[in-house]
Write a structure and sequence with these properties.
Elements: E1 17-21, E2 28-32, E3 42-50, E4 53-55, E5 57-61, E6 66-70, E7 73-84, E8 87-101, E9 108-113, E10 116-121, E11 126-140, E12 152-165, H1 177-196, H2 205-217, E13 219-220, E14 230-231, E15 241-242, H3 245-253, H4 258-270, E16 281-282, E17 287-288, H5 297-307, H6 314-334, E18 343-344, H7 347-350, E19 364-365, H8 367-386, H9 390-410, E20 412-413, E21 416-417, E22 420-421, E23 426-427, H10 448-462, E24 463-464, E25 467-468, E26 488-489, H11 490-502, H12 506-523, E27 528-529, E28 536-537, H13 543-559
Antiparallel strand pairs: 1-2, 2-3, 3-4, 3-8, 5-6, 6-7, 7-8, 8-12, 9-10, 10-11, 11-12, 13-14, 15-16, 16-17, 18-19, 19-22, 20-21, 22-23, 24-25, 26-27, 27-28
InterPro entries: 6-hairpin_glycosidase_sf, 6hp_glycosidase-like_sf, Glycoside_hydrolase_63, MGH1-like_GH
Keywords: Glycosidase, Hydrolase
Protein name: Glycogen debranching enzyme
């Protein structure tokens, strides 16, 4: 695959290193995604020097390597690979590669021996070792009391390595460049073969190649507070593992990589607050509880169990069961006002950050949250039976019944579902967001006329050229590139398609699935898509989009 590093960063499974090119000025950087998306990521700006003078570079990238060649002379180049999770290798031939760091106040670059330079990056609490295996390493880094006055690094005709670590550098034998490249190729081909499942038709091959690479390259290794391998949403801008985003990656991994799939769930179990809340996101440095996403883990885990018996193992099932009981208690105790349904405190809690449902004010009783909680209680009731907790099963069934009665009493009328907001729980007048249709997830509880009403509204008011718009296109709130005010999102598409297929609307489910497959051919693996044109919007290298695409493609291939 030809990889455009302006759209999809070059990286590898488990690595915090990546290489990407800016869209506005075309600068190319070696980056590092430790510390999450609020931390600085640029390590070195790259440039080529021919006969001592800067020259234009042509960039060629694949899943395995990035090559910067002198424009018009491909025999002069610098090539980058990431053969191990903590190693970035550079091979330079016939040209000088300049590494220009974004040097902070206390950052320090020092020579430890003839072929070793250590770089302390204070803002990231990170250390790098620059190692010369062969060639010429020309460096100027004059000291200025508390840091380097400037740092200039030139690499010529040889093989060089960057290693990242938190505390101490440990000597090791490095593979030669060709061997490292071959190892990397073998590893990726294995991943691609699992993701492709033998698919070799031309139609969706471009999307298959992108999605396979993104799901592989967006992983980071366990480090710091991360207890397992984490599929970050992106290494372009959004480099954390988010709650509810994580579930779609887990579903993709369940069949061939169950341990990795379980890691995506367990990361949040390990970081569960004593209140019962899961964090909004986790990275290697910290977890954030600013927003608390709706409880989708049990919906996911039930599907994981159907995909692979690995998830039926009692210890794992007990872990998600006990953890989810605490989640239910959190919403009951800390997110529920007397006589009301559990509420959101911000649009970001729902994942639908700026949806029109949240424009009137806070707090918001939303039918999607009620539906997630009802389905979660129903699943807990079934898990309790498996685990021999009959009394708890009855309690969860009763809790689900009570929540469902309250949902239909408070958030439903002859015109459909709606929300309430504020201390007086006033009805929200805006009813133009797709979020109000998510009670289709509990279609097994809804009367047939209610289901038919939901499906009719989906088809008449939300289905566009490429799928379900998140805001009615005729709504005054609709915005082109409006985030949750119109664009199509992969996880929401998955939830609707799965629900439609489960509750008697298979034809519509297949139609929407095929539209989503098509939109990736137009907009790539973007964070979201224009529902009319299919244009990819915002972050262009998104893992949950890639995961949902692959799940849908696997389903289509199985059908055929």
């Amino acid at each position: 695959m030809k990889l455009d590093i302006r759209e999809i960063p070059f990286s590898r499974f488990g690595s915090y290193f990546c290489v990407s090119q800016e869209k506005d000025n075309q600068d190319i950087y070696i980056r590092d995604v430790h510390g999450g998306d609020e931390a600085p990521s640029r390590l070195f700006k790259l440039g080529l020097l021919k006969d001592g003078q800067p020259c234009d570079a042509e960039v060629e990238a694949s899943e395995i390597a990035v090559k910067l060649s002198v424009k018009g002379d491909s025999s002069r180049f610098a090539e980058i690979i990431i053969p191990e999770e903590d190693e970035l290798h550079i091979q330079v031939q016939g040209v000088t590669l300049s590494l220009e760091p974004e040097n902070g106040k206390y950052d320090s670059f020092m020579e430890l021996s003839e072929n070793l330079y250590e770089y302390h990056i204070y803002s990231k609490e990170l250390k790098l070792m620059l190692v010369k295996l062969a060639g010429v390493m020309d460096i100027e880094a004059p000291w200025n009391t508390i840091g380097n006055h400037f740092i200039r690094i030139h690499l010529q005709d040889g093989h060089f390595v960057l290693r990242n670590y938190r505390t101490v550098y440990k000597e090791k034998q490095y593979d030669d460049f060709a061997t490292g490249k071959e190892k990397l190729s073998v590893q990726y081909e294995k991943w691609f073969s699992h993701m492709s499942k033998g698919y070799n038709d031309a139609e969706f091959m471009p999307s298959l190649e992108r999605a396979s690479y993104i799901t592989w390259a967006n992983f980071v290794r366990p480090e710091g507070v991360l207890p397992g391998y984490a599929m970050y949403m992106s290494k372009l801008w959004m480099y954390n593992i988010w709650s509810w985003d994580n579930c779609f990656g887990a579903l993709l991994l369940a069949e061939k990589y169950p341990e990795l799939a379980y890691d995506q769930i367990n990361i949040f179990i390990e970081h569960q607050d004593e209140s019962g809340a899961y964090p909004d996101f986790v990275n290697d440095k910290f977890s954030s509880y600013n927003c608390i996403k709706p409880p989708i883990f049990l919906y996911t885990y039930e599907k994981l169990m159907a995909m692979n018996d690995y998830f039926k193992e009692e210890t794992r099932l007990r872990a998600i069961y006990e953890s989810s009981k605490k989640v239910m208690s959190y919403f009951a105790e800390y997110r529920t006002n007397t006589g009301c349904l559990p509420h959101y405190k911000h649009g970001n809690d729902s994942g639908w950050d700026n949806s029109s449902l949240f424009h009137a004010g806070m707090v918001v009783e939303a039918p999607d949250l009620a539906a997630f909680l009802i389905r979660s209680c129903d699943i807990l009731a079934s898990f309790a039976i498996i685990l021999g907790e009959e009394e708890e099963s009855v309690q969860f069934k009763q809790q689900a019944d009570q929540l469902f009665s309250l949902l239909m009493e408070r958030l439903y009328d002859e015109n459909g579902f709606f929300g309430r907001y504020g201390k007086n729980a006033d009805p929200i007048q805006a009813r133009s967001s797709l979020i109000l249709k998510l009670p289709i997830m509990i279609g097994y509880r809804l009367e047939e006329k209610v289901k038919q009403q939901l499906v009719r509204e989906l088809a008449e008011h939300f289905e566009a050229n490429f799928g379900l718009a998140t805001e009615r296109i005729d709504s005054p709130y609709y915005k082109e590139n409006g985030y949750w005010l119109g664009p199509i999102w992969a996880p929401v598409t998955y939830l609707f398609i799965d629900s439609l297929a489960s509750f008697g609307f298979e034809e519509m489910a297949k139609r929407l699935r095929d539209k989503f497959l098509q939109v990736t051919l137009v907009g790539g693996m973007a964070e979201n898509f224009d529902p009319i044109t299919g244009k990819g919007l915002v972050d262009t290298s998104f893992a949950w989009t890639s995961s949902v695409f692959l799940l849908f493609l696997h389903e289509k291939v199985t059908e055929a």
